[in-house]
Each structure stands twice: as C-alpha cells, then as structure tokens.
Design a protein that fits this description.
The strands form nine sheets. Strands 33-34-36-35-37-38-39-40 form an eight-stranded mixed sheet, with helices on both faces. A five-stranded mixed sheet has the order 5-6-7-8-14, with no helix packed on it. Strands 24, 25, 26, 27 and 28 form a five-stranded antiparallel sheet that branches. Helix 1 packs across helix 14. It is α+β, with helices and mostly antiparallel strands and 742 residues long. The longest helix has 16 residues. It contains 15 helices and 40 strands. It folds into two domains: 402 residues, Neuraminidase (6 Propeller); 266 residues, 3-Layer(aba) Sandwich (Rossmann fold), CATH 3.40.50.1820.
Length: 742
C-alpha cells in the first residue's frame, strides 16, 4: 500500500499533472470563454492509444511580482520526450511564449521555476552537465547561467574504517593513512530544491551531500558494500547570497556565485523543505531523521532558523513529528502547517494547524471538517487567514480560513484544482484546473474568489479529441455496524448509451483508485476517455477509506481491507445495473496500487467479472510489509503482521487464491519500491498453479508512480510502457467481453 501523499491512484496523479482542484460549475463559469480545444471536445473521436502518447502536462504556476505575467511549467507529451519547460503567460491575454529550452543531453528539462522578487529574472533547476544546478535567466534577453554550488565534504564513506580493501602496496597504504585526516576541497553538488528570500538577497538551497572523489574511487573498485540504514550522507540546507538585481557573470565565467558564499544551516537531520518569513530574516524548516527512522514511526521535526545566525537553529517542540509544508504567517508571529489529523485516521490524513511562537499555542483549523485537507503548502494571507486545498466529495478545491478560524469555500468554475499560487503582494491569483470532460487550463483572478479568466497557453491535448463529463452518482452500502453508508462515485457512459440511442447495453469497466487513502475527483481524465472509445462505460468509486468525506470515513476500513470497501464497490455495480443501460454479463474491473490490491481481492471473492486487471498490487501483507519502502502506513491498518497474523492474512488477496477463477492480468514495474515485483510474482504463480488464466507483464526501469502515470496518460520518459499496457488492457478485457480489439 502507499500513503495518499505519495501515491493517490494513477488517475488522480494524472489529474494533478493535467488537471486541477476546485468547486463545481457556478456563475463564475460565464467569465470563461472556451478555447478551441475545449469546444471541440463535444464531438470528434475519443483518443486512440497512439494519441494517448500526445498529451502534455501543465503545473506549478507562479504569478510575477507585478501581477502581469505567469510563469508556468509545461511538460512535453510522451511522444516528444516528456521534458518540462518554462513558459510565460500574459494576464493581459497575449499568447504564452516558451522561455526555456533544453539541450539534447538534458533528458528532463527545466523545472521549479520561480520569479526573482524584482521580476527581472527567473530561477529554475536543470541538469545540463553532471549535476542538477540552479540557473538564473534574465527576462530582458541572454542565456541562463548556473550558480556554482560547491559544498564542503561533510561525509566521506570511503574514509570509514574498513570501507576500502587493504592497499596492494605498502606505500599506497602509508599514503592512504597520511591523507585520511586531510580536509577535502569543496565538491560540486546537486541542488534538490530552493527558496528565494522575499528581498531577493538570499536563496536557501536544499542540497544532498555529493559523492566524494574517494567514494567514486571506491565504487569504481567495486568496494561498494552498503551498510543499510547507516549512511553518513545527509540532505542539508545552505544559504547563498545573490545579487538581487542580477549582475554580470564573474570573470567572464558562465556561472554566478561561488562556494564561499554558501552558509551551512545547522539543522542536524535531513532537510525536506524551507520557507522564508515575509521580512526575509528567518526560515521555518521541515526536517526528518535519516536512515529510514520513519519506518519506526513519524520522524519529522520543525526548526526556526534566523538567517543571521544560521548555525544555531531552534527546534519547535510543540509542532509534532508528522508536520510538513510549514510556512510563516504574514506577520511572522506564527507558523501554519499540515500534520496528522487529531482524529483517528490513516497516516497522511492531515489537518491544518496554526502555531503561535509567543504563546506556544497550537490551533487545529480543520478538526471535524467533513471533507479532507489536501497536501499543497498553505498560503498565509495578509489579513491573517490561510488558504489550503481540500477535497469535498468528488470535487477538489480551495478553502479560505479567516484569522478567526471561519471556513469559506473559494468559488471557482472548475471541479478540480491541481495548483494555486499568488505573489508576495497577493495582487492576483493563478490556478491550474480542470473538470470532467474539460481539459486543463491556466486560470487567473485579480482576487481570491473573484472573476476568473482563462490565460492562453499551448495546447496540451491532441487536436479534435473527444472528452465526456461523468454523471455523479451515489448509493447506499452497509456500514460497519449495520447502518446505511452513503458511497459516491462517477459514471461515464458512451455517448449512445447516455443518449438512449444505443442498440444494446454497454459493457462496464469498474476502476478502483490507489491508496487506499485516495479518491477519484471530477477532473479531466484522458484514460477514461480512452476506455469510452472502446464502447465501454466506466464506473469510478470512492468506497470507505477514501478521502473527501472526513476522518471517520477515511478510517472506516481500518483492519478491514477488502471487506467493507469491497462491498461498497459491489453495491455501486448493483446500483448502476439497476439504473443505467449497463450489460450485467459484461463486467470488468481494474485498478492500480491499492486499486490493484482490490482487483486481487475481487478475483478471490466473486465470479461476476469477465476480466480483472491488477497493476502494482499488494498480494501478501506479510511479505510486502518487509520488502516495501516505508511500512509505517500499513501498521495503522492491521498492525505488525507477525503480531497480528490472522488479520494480516485475512487482508491478503493471496489467502483466497484457491477460490480464483476469473482471467487475471498483472502489470508491474520491475523497480517498484512501493509494491515490489515479488507481490505480482506471488499472485502470478499462485493463480497459474490453480489453473486460472493469468498473465504477468513487467516493465523495466520504472518505479511505482511513473508506471502508473504512463498507463493513465501522464507524459512519460518511457514512450512505450503506457502504450503497451493500454493495448494489453484493451485486448484482455475485450477478450473477456467476447470481442477482440482491433
């Protein structure tokens, strides 16, 4: 399994790249004139498998200091290499223009773009040599120039006693002893992230300890044994002084800055992120214990750093170990952050908190909220309020919390907002968002909740493709104490079935999201459109354990995986069979991550489906627990497996393999560290030995999230993984329905 913050289901992951989060259609929709691409979605054809490789992505909008331009990250389609680049859109309405371009050697492109406070240049990350560097690009023309980031050697694992084999010659051994204690020269390092101070004079850099020459030599000599969970390298925070106005490169070099301008921040554990105060005098830092300590329980910490005394940070003891995404209040007197909810809920289910430094008081702004708090960094408002992304049912939007704690939904003409941003002056707001049947757009409003308009950006969708909005539905299921439990979902019908003109009822594909702490929201879904193009209806369900319905609902499948949530899904199937033109003899089910796990549960519990597709699943809670990356999440659901053997086995699909009969397909990334390859292998061999028709397809080089994104249509650097998987899914399900796909 995997937490919501890391993997919330392949479809929603795609929504966060392509779509957005917001609150359904309202009067503000009249302010939006549909683009040509959106207008075309009422007709045309649904995307083909090849066209699925031609969708781009958009995210990370940043409003310029003067409020007139928006820096936005556009990702090329899979067919074009899936590189990301920075574009500038104009609030005044002019067509966006591409700002950065990548050399052929750079396979990822430019990302993490930010405006310098004077608006005269932008910073971004890119890997155009051996290391990921921070670049500055002047807006008045000229080439981007990299800052030279060289850090002192804080850890050299090659100098640990016994790390290297004995020297072959005595002189070499003596030389090694002589140099072991020498101070190493600063080493060029990768920049993992950065934050610009509001005054533009300092940039906080998150930097991972680099490989030293000695470590490289040891690796080349194959002296590369790893002492698990005993690594010396850390992720550290440095402060770098910069020319706020952007001067000429020093000595004609193409690089700005120098190693001697870096100041090490004394946070003693791994740094995950940082945020500046409005007056640029201090930072709040998110950190975490190194070497997998989080597997034993929450291991985070929050620190306050005074920029003028960076060597002596202060740990904020009152902020819990689950805190993340901390930011300063606008007056600098407090900190706003996300942390584990007060009420019992799965790890990663957050509340929004406010901490006051003077009184050390903590206030939970969202306790009892009947939706779910999202995972974006909070935005502290000038009036003392806070803006945070939230989910409510199948919509994902924004909530504004006043200084007094009053909550108010921000009205937007979209059902799903993936990103929101403002500038330091909060003179405007930008959003990346979409709705079911309506492609991703970059939106602008001069005020939060005010009139919204669409900014001109490059097309992200193949020309003329069709997209359909879902029918939002709900049904009743039996709760844990026999009570009636309302379950929500979305039904997508082929156009003829929706219009009542089809000659026969539509086959149905049931999709299950990942998590289980995740959800489907009403966002633009190209994969659903692709399935509709096969003539199939699609049902997406949010059973108990999903987000968007409050903490109690998210916790309703505790120690009951594959139990009540399975019944919720099947109740939804029964509901649409009674109310919609669905062929009950042509049912299929598929899911990714926890959705793949549920697919395996379904395989062992019913024969109502003609085909089941399980991607990146958990099959055996015992073996997965010991081989996954991070098992703390699973403990909340059923405890440590060796202490709760019956519970762990009951909630393992493998326990019912002897009852399996339905043709079953497994899709698996070979480098998956979340739900490792061994899980799919266990199910494959079990079903094969039981005589059940089963297929296993593995994909090299990809971890958990990237394969899911590729399958569901996100831009991917693996051009054929998604294509191959979709082709196999269509053929496999089509065969189950008694019809081969062309």
């Amino acid at each position: 399994m995997q937490t919501f913050s890391r993997w919330i289901g392949a479809s929603l992951s795609f929504a966060l790249v392509m779509g957005s989060v917001g609150y359904g259609q309202d009067k503000a929709a009249a302010a939006i004139a549909p683009t040509a691409a959106v207008a075309a979605q009422g007709g045309g054809a649904f995307p083909s498998n090849e066209q699925m490789r031609h969708y781009g992505g958009m995210g990370s909008p940043r409003l310029s200091p003067d409020g007139r331009r928006v820096l936005v990250q556009i990702t090329d389609s899979t067919a074009e290499g899936a590189k990301s680049h920075l574009w500038v859109a104009e609030v005044g309405g002019a067509q966006a223009r591409q700002l950065t371009y990548s050399p052929a050697a750079d396979k990822r492109g430019e990302r993490a773009g930010e405006w310098m406070p004077d608006g005269q240049s932008v910073l971004f990350l890119a890997k155009r040599g051996e290391h990921t560097a921070l670049y500055r690009l002047p807006m008045n023309g000229g080439e981007a120039k990299a800052f030279e980031v060289k850090v002192p050697v804080m850890a050299d694992e090659s100098k640990v006693k016994g790390a290297l084999p004995p020297a072959k010659e005595t002189k070499d051994a003596e030389k090694s002893e002589e140099t072991a204690g020498e101070k190493s020269e600063p080493v060029e390092a990768d920049v993992a992230g950065y934050r610009i101070a509001p005054d533009g004079k300092t940039v906080a850099l998150v930097v991972s300890d680099p490989q030293t020459p000695g470590e490289k030599k040891a690796k080349d000599a194959k002296a590369d044994a790893e002492w698990v969970d005993h690594g010396l390298h850390r992720t550290r925070l440095y402060l770098m002084s910069v020319d706020a106005k952007g001067g000429e490169a020093k000595d004609g070099d193409a690089k700005e800055g120098a190693a001697e301008k870096l100041t090490l921040v004394g946070v003693p554990v791994d740094v995950r992120g940082a945020a500046w105060s409005a007056d640029s005098t201090k930072l709040v830092v998110d950190a975490e214990e190194p070497n997998g300590v989080d597997e034993l329980g929450p291991a985070g910490s929050t620190w306050v750093v005074t920029a003028s005394d960076a060597a002596h940070p202060v740990k904020v003891a009152e902020i819990p170990a689950t805190a993340e995404n901390a930011v300063w209040s606008r007056d600098g007197l407090g900190v706003v952050y996300l942390a584990q909810a007060k009420r019992d809920a799965p790890p990663g289910y957050a509340d929004l908190y406010e901490y006051t430094l003077a009184t050390k008081a903590v206030r939970d702004l969202t306790d009892g909220f009947e939706g779910s708090v999202g995972h974006q960094q909070p935005i502290a408002l000038a009036d003392g309020g806070v803006v945070e992304d939230v989910e409510m049912g199948v919509e994902a939007g924004l909530m504004r919390y006043s200084a007094a704690g009053k909550a108010e939904a921000v009205k937007l003409p979209i059902a799903a907002v993936a990103a929101v941003a403002t500038n330091e002056a909060q003179s405007g707001w930008v959003f990346v968002g979409s709705s079911g049947g309506k492609e991703t757009e970059l939106l602008y409003s001069p005020t939060l909740g005010g009139e919204v308009k669409v900014l001109a950006t490059p097309a992200l969708t193949p020309k003329g493709v069709r997209s359909e909005a879902p029918k939002r539905i709900s049904w009743m299921s039996e709760g844990p104490r026999g009570e009636k439990l309302k379950i929500e979902g979305m039904l997508y019908l082929p156009p003829e079935a929706a219009a009542g003109t089809a000659n026969e009822k539509a086959p149905l594909v049931v999709e299950v999201h990942g998590g289980p702490l995740g959800s489907y929201v009403d966002s633009y879904s190209t994969f659903t459109d692709f399935l509709l193009g096969q003539g199939w209806a699609v049902l997406r369900t949010n059973p108990r354990g999903s987000t968007g319905r409050g903490a109690a609902f998210a916790a309703a499948n505790k120690n009951d995986l594959g139990g009540g949530d399975y019944r919720d899904i099947m109740a939804g199937v029964d509901y649409v069979l009674k109310t919609e033109p669905i062929d009950g003899d042509k049912l299929a089910l598929m899911g990714y991550s926890y959705g793949g796990e549920m697919a395996a549960f379904v395989e062992t519990k019913t024969t109502r489906f003609k085909a089941i597709v399980s991607a990146a699943p958990v099959i055996d809670q015992n073996s997965e627990y010991g081989t996954e990356k991070g098992s703390w999440y699973d403990q909340w659901y059923f405890g440590k497996p060796w202490m709760h053997e019956a519970d762990a086995w009951r909630q393992s699909p493998l326990s019912g393999a002897d009852k399996a009969k339905t043709p079953f397909m497994l899709l698996q990334g070979e480098d998956d560290t979340t739900d490792p390859l061994g899980q799919s292998l266990e199910m494959y061999h079990a079903l094969r030995q039981m005589g059940v028709p089963v297929e296993l397809i593995t994909y090299p080089r990809v971890d958990h999230g990237p394969l899911g994104g590729a399958i569901y249509g996100s831009p991917s650097p693996e051009p054929w993984h998604g294509f191959d998987a979709r082709q196999r899914v269509v053929e496999f399900i089509g065969k189950g329905f008694g019809k081969s796909s062309e």
